[in-house]
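<instruction>
Derive structure tokens from the sequence
<entry> Chain with its tokenised backbone below:
===
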Amino acid sequence: MRPMVEFCVSNLANGTDVVKKALEEENEVDVLEYGCLGNCGQCFVQPFALVDGIIVAAATPEALLAAIKEHIKKKQEEDKAWRKLGF
């Protein structure tokens, strides 16, 4: 199953639009945009996205892109380890 990355439209206006575009171009994840994700405090403070339902945030859009990729990588490694154990 492909990872899902969700963005708040208000946060996109604060710079995460470049992150969304980069992820869409790579075509490795499903990218969704919502009017609101219900994290208004987070949205106001820093760039963030939900990655498979988990908040991933960073100080800059560039750092957010790196954090999202790292989060996805770690999740995929964990899933692989669980499959090796038969789960």
In short: The chain has three helices and four strands. Residues 4-84 form one domain.
